[in-house]
Amino acid sequence: MKRILFVDDEPQVLQGLRASLYARRKEWEMHFAEGGAQAIELMRGTHFDVVVTDLRMPGVDGTTVIARTRNDSPDTIRIVLSGYADGEQSRHLVSLAHRYLSKPCDPKRLEECVDGCLATQSLIQSVELRTRLGTVTALTLMPAIFAALQRALADPNIDSAKVATIIQRDPAIAAKVLQVCNSAFFRLPRRIASIQHAVSYLGLSTVRSMVLSAELFQPGKTLCAGLDLGQLQRHALNVAAIARSLAAETNWAEEAFLAGLLHDVGLLLLGREYKDEMQRALEATEAGMLLGDAERKFVGVDHGTAGAYLLALWGLPYQIVEAVAQHEAPARVGQTSFDVPSAVGIAQALLVEIRQADAPIQGAMTRSLWAEHVREMRFPESWESLVERARMLLDTQEAA
Questions:
Q1: Which of 51, 54, 73, 236 is 20 to 30 A (C-alpha) from 150?
Q2: Contact of 377 with 338, CB cutoff 8 Å
Q3: What is the distance between the alpha carbons of residues 184 and 35, in angstroms, rounded to a whole number?
Q4: Is the dihedral of CA 296, 299, 301, 307 positive or negative?
Q5: Most confident range, picked from 48-52, 146-150, 167-171, 372-376
Q6: Burial of residue 248, with CB atoms counted within 10 A of its CB: 0-12 exposed, 13-18 middle, 19 or more buried
Q7: Closest by CA position to 97, among listed 33, 25, 7, 3
Q8: Whole-number pLDDT of residue 278
Q9: 268-277, 367-376, 378-387: the lowest-pLDDT one
Q10: How far is it, in rounded angstroms, from Cα 55 to Cα 81?
């Protein structure tokens, strides 16, 4: 049974939560703390799977509760449920909380959020792995892109389109901007999966504060020797561009681009947090082992699952999380639907065929599966035609 801790300084709010969630009592062991001090005392003796806390409380506030939870129990899912947060608090909480819900919050919405987070948690069974990944707030940045973004944001006449163009060149910055934009603090009616839309909604002032904040965007630890940040960036951008081209006639082309951009964030994550283990995994792939198998052997989790775990906790759209999880192990290849995960898988396979030397080692193993998938789902173009279209797209991008 999962343990959930709800924290609020108003007794009537806790009573309302207790009543509205009564039906879940056989699935969740629920505890209710009246204020931050009581919550921290409860956490000293009990491990909780999820902590849901109000933000504004006298004495020990919600920010303190979330910070203590992250430090003392990193594998615990941290959710803020609040009716108010100023800009500075919002930016600070991005580095501490996984999800954000606005007050008043519909009980069904709260249940769905907790259920979704628990489902994400189940992706990784190892408590040690969840604990280590639970401390991650930012991914390794591409220094040149980070510097370009700083320069652009220093220009008072810069427009959001130019900022978005720079942001979407870096998976780490793109993931963080989308995490913030999709938080409940901005009360948007739907999830945002377009960098352009995210920058427009957030505004350049907020983006500038985020980017210049060392707390959120720090260069971080270096990657293991076998991973090249520049190559990973080029690969992500090329997969993203091809995926968007494949989905050009759909209404989810931007989601396909974003999923392509983020599909290998797990490599950044594991390459930084598990440097030695990932290096051994990469060396094993050179001896013929599939990367996913090598990662599970030496790290305990493959980079697709690790990336999906982090992005799901950050609240990114489901299809993007699904694409990240499946891009190396296409469980849905046998299905006939063309969707975001399919677009990313096909894009990666096309890139392997066009530029084998620039693709990650594991990409070569999926080409035949995705080529067959294109035929089985009766895609309007042949595999050979898609290869030529992708080659022309990449050539055009490089010439620009």
A1: 236
A2: yes
A3: 22
A4: negative
A5: 48-52
A6: exposed
A7: 7
A8: 95
A9: 367-376
A10: 7
Q: What is the residue whose two structure tokens read 């983020």?
A: 262
**Side chain identity, residue 378:** R
Residues 212-219: what's their mean pLDDT?
48
| Gyration radius from the chain CA atoms | 22
Axis-axis angle for helices 171-181, 265-273 (nearest 10) = 100
Burial class (CB in 10 A: 0-12, 13-18, 19+), 340: buried
Tokens in use for 104? 């008043």
Within 8 A by CB and 6+ apart from 259, the residues are 240, 243, 319, 320, 323, 324, 340, 341, 343, 344
Closest CA to 246 of 236, 235, 260: 260
pLDDT tens digits for 63-119? 899 999 988 998 899 998 876 555 555 555 656 778 877 777 888 889 988 988 888
Place of tokens 């290849």: 333
Upper half-sphere CA count for residue 96 (Cβ side, 13 Å):
21
348 within 8 A of 363, measured Cβ to Cβ: yes
